[in-house]
Every structure is written in C-alpha cells, then in structure tokens.
C-alpha cells in the first residue's frame, strides 16, 4: 500500500515532507487538503489528524501527524535514505532534536506568527489572534540572529557546520520561505541582515533541487494574488491583525 | 567524567530530566541555575546554552539543550535504560516524537503561558508578555481536552494506552505540575473536568516514585510563598499580566 501524504503546498511543514519524499525516491500519493478552503476540518480528515493541521501521513494502517515526527519516521522506516538526513550517530542526532525543538519555540512562532495570523487567516476567514503578529515581530529577528550566529556556526554550509543537509535544514528553510508571502520590501528588510541565513537558504535549495522549486511553485503562484488582495483589503503586513476583525 | 545536568527544580523540563536520570540510575552532577535569580544569563552559562534556558547538559565535551532532545539523548546513549522510555520500535518512537512536538504547540503554550508570564516573571523582575496568559487560558483547556480524549485513549494508563511510561509521559506530566503555582481553587477548576488526565498524573507519579516527589519538593516548598506574594502584590492569577507592568 502506497504511503499517503496529506498536505497543502501553501503550508511550510507540508512542503518539507513532500520535498523529503521526492528527493529520497519514496513512493507516495499526495492528497491535497486545502487549509484555506477549511478542508482540514472535515470529519474524514479529523480521523487522520484530530488537530486539523497539515501535513499528516497514513502508511498502511499507521497514522502520524506533526511534520518533525513524520520526517524522522520516513528517514528511519524507509530504506535507502542517506544517513545525513537523520544521522544514526547519537550526538549528531541529538543536535537535530535540539534544533527541531528550538524551531517550535522560536523560528515557527516568529514566521508563522506573522504570516498566518496577519495574512493567511484574516484573508480566508480562518480563526486568528491579532496579538500574535505583534509578538512574532519581536521573536523573528531574534530567531534569525540565533540561526546566523549559533546554529550556522562552523565551516560547512548547513546547520551545525555540516557538509550535507539534514531534516532540520529542510524543515527550517521551508519555514523561512513562508515569509515570501510578505511584501517584497518587508521580506528584504527582515532577511537582508542575515548573510549566512540567506546563503544557507540558497544552499538548501540547491541541495534539494529540482524538488525544492517544484514544490514551492504553489507558493509563488499565489504570492502575487495574496499580495494584491492584502492591498485591496487594506490589510498590509505592517498593520495587519490590529485593523482586521478577529474571527472567534 | 560525570554527566553534568544544569537545572532549576522550579522549571518543569528540568524536573523531567532530573527524574529521568534518577529513575534510570544515570550517574550525574546537578548544577543549579536559578532562573529566578537570573543565573541563566551569566556568560559562563551562555557558553553552555546560548538561549539562557534550563535544562542543559554537558556530557564530556558534548553540550546539549532542549529537554526533549536531552531525554532522547540520555535514553539512547546510556546503557540500561528500559526500552519503554524511548522504544526502539519505529512506530512507537514516531508517536513519541508526535506528542513531543504537540507538547510545544499546545500544552506548553497553555501551562507555561499562564504560570511563567502571569506569576513567575512578574514576581521576579524577568521579561514577560502580558498578552500571553490571555492566549494561554484559551489553549490550556483545549490541550487538556486533547490529552483526555486523544492521547490518553486506550487501555493502558499511559499515553497511547501504553502500560509503561515513556519520556513523553514524564515531560508532559511535569508540565502540568507547573500549574501547582496557581491558587488551589484555580488549579482544581482547570483540572477537575479531566478525569483521565488526573489519573494519568497519579500513575506517572507512582511509576517514577520516590523521585517524582523528591524532585517536585522544590516546587511545593515555594508554592505557599509565591501564592502569598501574589496576593500581596495584587497579582492574582486571574487578572495578573494585564494589570502588571510589562518589563521590556
């Protein structure tokens, strides 16, 4: 039975899982769950992921959600995945778990906090919290600084100075790519101080090509449409949440 | 060289790591980093954990932070840790990674959001965000419902219906114990609807005794003092953050 990946390419953790499957030649069926159309709330999907989030997988009778857990599972359960994605070495593996936990408390809160709560959700009638983007704008630069000065220390181009990418590189870079939904000016303002981060994004794209661009195409296809709608609805990414009505 | 565990017993992830070491007979030196005295900000500690959080470990020359990563590392690197703590089985392990990731986005945001940002930080001159407890009070009951109805489904007393605890049981129960800093009335109000959760806390205590109580003694020792100070400073846990001055 083929692995089923329930994903939306507009969701950054979904993209990480899809790219991982493609680059590692894992045979899978992609089932689109469009979160902007609220498809994650159907009773059928809630049977797979009661948290109503993407991605999730069904592998035979085994159901799993949370993208980090999925990436680790795929790297462990599928033969032929090169060791660098999720090294067997206990020390290297521990560092990956450490940065993945950090991802939750810092980078995700920063990037998703801005993009989801001030752009995606208000534009599409999903529940959002207008206070979140304000907090996220403080967390994001702090997170990018930590990436630049700590996680990207070392001689190699990837996290921990490694010479090849791990599931953490893929997961974190996909997170940062979500900032492409901001205006071009704001995207540049946020990222331009972080030269190592910018180089690392490019290195990760190159290491996972052509799948990285293929899977991110969905993001770029709606990027302009979303930016135009934001201008029309006067929901600029600067003043966003605070002027929109919060849906409870 | 003995494993060094940098911890503060008032921090819930610190307690999880300490209890795990004790119950598994891992020889370690406990080095207290009192976060209420800002000891996590010393240059020496920042060399170990640049995020200035507890816990962290130093094992020989290997440094690691983030409690989930530490628990996985200890369960994997130290011989003699029973399999149930972090099973070798790829499916069981995947479920543990899934609930640990969920812990970050739900239960931790709920419990720490209330306790740290409306009690611990305002009382001790640490930076806090007065908006966080408000969000946390929405997330916490949702998290407890998911625990009750989803993660604690099954016949056994532990997560996923297991008959023995894993690192996830320990980590999540220590998180909930942090709610003991709230008033007795509020603690009861929050937890009493969740019968399975209450039983699971007791089962986890019993499965990790006497270390669970020994390590949590620090919490109960300061519980009354903190509750009294909260009353004195009119920072009740109900109105807390919104009336206190936010330290920037």
Automatic annotation (TrEMBL), chains A, B:
This is Uncharacterized protein. It comes from Cichorium intybus (Chicory). The lineage of its organism: Eukaryota, Viridiplantae, Streptophyta, Embryophyta, Tracheophyta.
